[in-house]
Amino acid sequence: MTKRRAVRGLVIGVLLAAVLASAWLYQETRPTDTAGRTYVRFTTQTDYHGALDRLHAEGLIRSTSATYFVAWFRHEVHSVEPGIYRFEAGRGASGRIVELRGPVHQRLRLPETNWALRTANVLEKHDVCTADEYMEFVRNPDRIRSEVSFPIESTTLEGYLYPATYDLPPTLGAHDVILTQLKRFETEVWEPLGHPKDLLRLLKEASLVELEVKYDNERPMVAGVIENRLKLGSPLQIDASINYGMQIWRPLKVSEYHSFQSEYNLYLHKGLPPTPICSPSAKSVDAAVHPANHKYLFYVALPGGVSLFAENYAQHLKNVKKRRDAIKALRGAKR
To answer: For the range 198-203, what are the long-range contacts, defined as Cβ-Cβ under 8 Å and sequence gap of 24 or more?
Structure first.
């Protein structure tokens, strides 16, 4: 009889312990009171217990031990890779375990047609950094000049921020975005083109080509027009530079060609703009390095983007008429 009581007592004790453990586990794996989305960055590979300690310190889990037990039971214990991890509000331990499976990846296209402020707005929209933080680096090259191997001879990083598709997770920060773009510039432009001399001048010319040309085969042609006009001392008369000076991208009003007072108005000022007007692709920089040898001094684009080139103003006016007729025909076809 005593033995039966002992066994019964043991069973009751085990059951009571199980109930208490279950209650504890339930309590300690419930969601915390955090509100909104939270990002946590791990800069090095971290063991699972250490990662959970970090989440506990951030108020994202109630108990490291309870969450670790659930992860162990589910065979989810692993090293946490470096990166930025996203944690949604209202999730308990099970949700956090899922969120720790891998960092956030966010592929963003930063196109050739973007100047720095346009890129800054894209980055802010996707929570990578604020536009102001990004532009603070752009306007102060000294903050990052020592971290690259090529010369940055400008008062701005405009022109050096290579356009491409990047993995830019939320909260990455302006410094890391800028450095990633500059390193890409190094591998796509600086090294392949053999450390070109007068780099800043090439970037100014290439940026004009980038915003004026749609088709690759026309890049050297337009670069040739720019070189021919520079040799003659003629104003370049490039609309895209005025757009950059205004920091807006739209068709210009006729009055703006002469009323907009800026060094970026290449109708009023001879030579290249004071800085690049975007960060050009390697193709446009190559065109600036190797401009086509021809006698053209003018070009105008048809609605589809194909350019018509002319050696003199009379021929240019004929090409302008062709453009206007093409636009008129398109409008008529849409009615």
So the answer is: 199/150, 199/151, 199/153, 200/153, 200/154, 200/159, 200/276, 201/272, 202/285, 202/288, 202/289, 203/159, 203/160, 203/276, 203/280, 203/285, 203/288
Residue 169's CB: how many other CB atoms inside 10 A? 21
DSSP SS3 for 193: coil
Chain position carrying tokens 């000294």: 142
Residue 272: how many CB atoms within 10 A of its CB? 21
Per residue in 140-194, pLDDT (tens digit) is: 999 999 999 999 988 999 999 999 999 999 999 999 999 999 999 999 999 998 9
User: Which of 300, 286, 278 minimizes the C-alpha distance to 220?
Assistant: 286
Q: Is the pTM of this model over 0.90?
A: no
Q: Do residues 298 and 315 touch, judged by C-beta distance below 8 A?
A: yes
Instruction: List CB contacts of 48: < 8 A, sequence separation 6 or more.
Output: 68, 71, 77, 78, 79, 80, 100
Contacts of 2 (CB under 8 A, 6+ apart): none
Which among 56, 38, 53, 50 has a CA at the least distance from the CA of 79? 50
E strands, 73-151, where? 83-87, 107-110
Do 123 and 180 meet the contact criterion of CB atoms below 8 Å apart? Answer: no
Question: In the chain, how many H helices and how many E strands?
Answer: 13, 6
Q: pLDDT digit string (tens) for 30-60?
A: 999 888 899 999 999 999 999 999 999 999 9
Question: What's the pLDDT tens digit per position in 188-223?
Answer: 999 998 998 899 999 999 999 999 999 999 999 999
